[in-house]
Design goal:
This protein has helices at 22-41, 123-160; strands at residues 2-8, 46-51, 54-56, 65-75, 79-88, 94-105. The chain is α+β, with helices and mostly antiparallel strands. The structure holds coenzyme A (COA). Coenzyme A (COA) binds at residues 47-50, 76-79, 102, 104, 112. Pfam families: 4HBT (PF03061).
Length: 161
Amino acid sequence: MNFHTRKWVKPEDLNPNGTLFGGSLLRWIDEEAAIYAICQLDNQRVVTKFISEINFVSSARQGDIIELGMKATHFGRTSITLRAEVRNKITRKSILTIEKMVFVNLGADGVPAPHGRECIRYADEAYERYRQTVQTSADATAVAAANEAQRQADNEDTSVH
Ligand SMILES: CC(C)(COP(=O)(O)OP(=O)(O)OC[C@H]1O[C@@H](n2cnc3c(N)ncnc32)[C@H](O)[C@@H]1OP(=O)(O)O)[C@@H](O)C(=O)NCCC(=O)NCCS
């Protein structure tokens, strides 16, 4: 499981008991899980479909630094299932676990669409894909510029004759 995101528990995140408010934590988790799903499925149009039992294992206090962890546990046809855990960054004590968070991949029409993914992809692979895309479009731009230069040269030749 990768713990990418750290949060610092601040006064505005507390409940009247002086510990981390569950609603704040769930908002952070849902956002973190959505970002994870977006990166895995390469699609910004993903929505939360299902969240299983949430186990608030222990509390966090003001000033604590906590970290949010995600791992894809299942790739369906249009969905992805994640497991989530939040823990104290320093003590590693578990704060929350969610066994199952299901996100659905949508098409431009807002209807579930197959995502074609089968296994976890890592950040380096995403960067490599991005680099290749940029390289490919740079190549295409270079070819188009060369063609345009050639076309202009041909026109100039025509006007000379
Ligand atoms: C997401 C939504 C489009 C899915 O519609 P749907 O009619 O349930 O779609 P489907 O029946 O085709 O199911 C889509 C996928 O979700 C899965 N799914 C549906 N209900 C599920 C449930 N209760 N638990 C787990 N997975 C579920 C299906 O198994 C399917 O996955 P697969 O293709 O990998 O097998 C629709 O339910 C919706 O718009 N929900 C609201 C989403 C939302 O607003 N979320 C909060 C804000 S992000």
